[in-house]
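My current task is to audit a protein record that another person submitted. What it holds is a sequence and that sequence's fold in token form. Thanks in advance; the entry in question is below.
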Amino acid sequence: MQKTQRFEAVRKIIREKRIESQEQLLNELHRKGFDVTQATLSRDLKQLKVAKVPDGVSGYKYTIPEYQKPQREAGAASVYIEDLRRGFVSLAFSGNICVISTLEGHANSVASAIDNIEVPGILGTLAGDDTIMAVLSEGSDRREIEDFFRGIE
């Protein structure tokens, strides 16, 4: 089956069921007739901007943002700004590194937003679960970066 059909199936499964692991999602896809590997599913989840968030009860579950057109199309910047607003907590600097704290499970979506809207002074990001390491460009202005993040609130 085609990638777009698989993406739609992943979206539907995550919206309709409580999915706690890639293995659980992979089993659901296999039941629906998709012959997909764990590596492919992992790439799909990244492309779909799926996040693992605390469920407030017993652990974590997958969540998926409402479907958006691929990045860099008209209106995409506002989607990324919403990701920033939803997950950003604080930032601190050390040398040419900016450490950005997020809500649990939001670091990937916030880092993706930073990379895609090309925040001034940030070359790129690496994300964990609730922390992002951003590499600053030579001569970047920390105040400009702080102002940017203050402006999203």
